[in-house]
Amino acid sequence: MDDLAGFLRTRRSRVDPAAVGIPTDRRRRVEGLRREDVAHLSGVSVDYYVRLEQGRSTQPSEQVLDALAGVLGLDETERGHLYRLARQRRRRAKAPVGRVRPELLRVLELVTDAPALIMDHRMDVLAGNRLAGLLYGRPMPGLNSARHIFLEEAERGLYADWENCTLDVVGHLRLAAGKYPDDPRLASTIGELAMGSERFRRLWARADVRARTHGRKAYPASAGRAAGTTPGELRTSGRIRN
């Protein structure tokens, strides 16, 4: 579902050569950095870096990965993703079983002023509080948040900032695919989204990764009325990691 070679290609295409001291001219046909540029700046041979991007290289060392991350300007989330992809050949993480810990269910019961969901890495909703059920208008178990956003909702549907929500979803699924490359259910979900949504295909090709931690999520006034609150009250939807 994800690989080191593809991630490196997309990251170097986004680096401005001028920002790393490489002069550019009209004859330059490659967007971003060339393979030779990345090799030179990270201190490895061009042949070695080419083999990395072609998936033919052996396990890169920690020093090489650190150098590549610095040259490509990766943030903390992207660095972690890079290291996981590089180690996939050595050890592959087993996808967790979708069971909710009892202590998380107790926390969920205490959230009474905002919709709250418990989701796994596939974005399958495992449990939700009362307001979440009213907001979505359906039972929580069996709902997949990614499928709901891309295949069931229009741009002016449940999510006031639908476009930004889709960026978060794809970034999370990219991160999950790098962590659990052998998860068939995750692969099936990603395949379904790619088949059914042109926007998902475009965003997936960018290979962006995002860590889903916290933040605000706004819903339109109609959603607030559906959940039995005033529009001003229904400002966020908590997602508790299982």
Question: What is the strand and helix layout of this fold?
Answer:
Layout: H1 4-12, H2 35-42, H3 46-53, H4 62-71, H5 76-86, H6 102-110, E1 116-119, E2 125-128, H7 130-136, H8 145-152, H9 162-179, H10 184-196, H11 198-206, H12 221-226, E3 238-241
Explain the overall architecture:
There is one protein chain. Helices cover 48% and strands 5% of the residues. It is mainly α and 242 residues long. Strand 1 and strand 2 (125-128) form a beta hairpin. It starts with a helix and ends with a strand.
Summary?
The protein is mainly alpha-helical and 242 residues long. The chain is built from twelve helices and three strands.
List keywords for this structure.
242 residues, mainly alpha, 3-stranded mixed β-sheet, 12 helices, 5% strand
Number of strands: 3
Mean pLDDT comes to 82
Low-confidence stretches: 224-238
Compute the number of helices: 12
Helix content: 40-55%
Distance between the termini: 23 Å
In N-to-C order, the SSE pattern is HHHHHHEEHHHHHHE
Q: Please compute the radius of gyration using only Cα atoms.
A: 21 Å
**Main sheet properties:** 3 strands, mixed
**Given the helix and strand composition, which structural class is it?**
mainly alpha
Oligomer: single chain
Could you tell me the strand content as a percent range?
under 5%
Question: Based on CA inertia axes, which overall geometry fits?
Answer: elongated
